[in-house]
Amino acid sequence: MSEKATINPTPQASDGLDAIATQEAIEDQRRKTEQEQSGGALQRYINAPSAINFSLLLQCSWEAAAVTFQFSLTNGGPASIAYGSIFAGLGTTLVALSLAEMASMDPTVGAQYRWSAAFAPKWNRFFGLMQGWITVFAWICSCTSNPALISNIVVGLASFNNEAYVPLRWHSTLIMWSLTVFPFVGNFWLPRFINPLETVGAVCHVVFFFASIITLAVMADKSSVEYVFHTLTHDVSGWTNPAVAWGLGLLTVTYPLTGFDGVLHMSDEVQRARLRIPRSMILSVIINSTMQFLYMITVLFCIGDVTLVSASPLPIIQVYYQATGSRAATNLFVVMLLFIIFVSFFNVFASVSRLVWAFSRDDGLPFARVFASVHPRFKMPVNALCLIAVCLVLLALINIGSSTAFNAFISLPALALYISYFFPIFFLSWRRLAGRHSTPIPWGPFKLGKAGPYVNLGAMCYILFILIWMPFPAMLPVDGLTMNYAGPIVGAVVVGAALDWTLNGRKRFQVPVAGHEL
Question: pTM, whole model, 2 decimals?
């Protein structure tokens, strides 16, 4: 590879992969000792294929885009989906490259909050604690989006197959509650079946993708090139400015590409994490963004009667039904989507529980010792798993009180995750360009080289652009039911984290220290 994106054979020089393996073995032993002293250690059982498959399924981009593209039908339309997919793919790749470089230096469960604490020019403990709260909150919200997507699919299929069915908001809440049981229980035996589970899920992720686009391409009536690439919808939602409508329509294509950092939070269970985690993150984003673009272009060309599709509770059902003319085939294709998102739910649940466990281990959360313990039999952070399950049960109640709850379940994790990506990239860029530090940056096996500052800058510009649109309400006029509560909720979390720092966090939180000084 060129200097712009080099894979160095060791974290510092070129002594070969054996040196990396030796260093990782030393760090593994150190981490194990530290963890046993603070509540227990996790097992390393995730191999190279499973690490890649874990990231692939965690994003499940084309499936998530399929069941959320109704947002773009009213804001931006086909032009927002088509060009937005390219824009989101390139922007997310820059973000993934930036985070992968840090993951290669310090592959750690805490990831963003640990890097922010390490690279911040001053007030390291403050930025570490704030970043930890934001990242934990973002991943809890991201975990909620999986059952929200699945419940939306179930309700959509029920309406499709039974015209007499009248969906009520509490139905979705009950579905989300029942779904939460599966990954909660499954995580107790995760080491035993995660490798075959990830393999099956990844195969389905790819096979169902080709089955879907081939079926639509062969059987559906085709839209014109003019409709797909030149139709900008800005007269349906109340937002009349074309630029605003296009920006709001990006939610459909940006949300599914978030979450690639989930494998980072499994670092203590990934073998040879310093090499495998950066690779899995980058490959996941490239593959998922490509699949999302191809799938959404296929859907746009095969969308059929746009009026019928837009009026459907779950538009993708009408797309398949108009293409195949068969209820059985439509149910099969939509259940495919449901299955892959369901498998992804196990990954997200596991990832966020490890993040809560790590943040608690560093005394980031109140009652930290409770959530930092690892069960001696299951080798799992059981208390952290319980906390996540409780949070999901409580957040599912949003469905009962708001008709736009599904919008919140999608925009909230996207907004919070992008914020969590921004600060470590910003601090690394600061350190990279300042050049005034007592120790050099301890680069890992994956290094961006001279391209690093430009990649970091591009990633930050992309994140800031996306963050502009995430808090906007999808419809005008705005009232209590159509309000987008993502911005105020994230703001409340930031204020709460600042209060925690002021009251107790500054005494409680410990700045994480890497195996070598950052």
Answer: 0.87
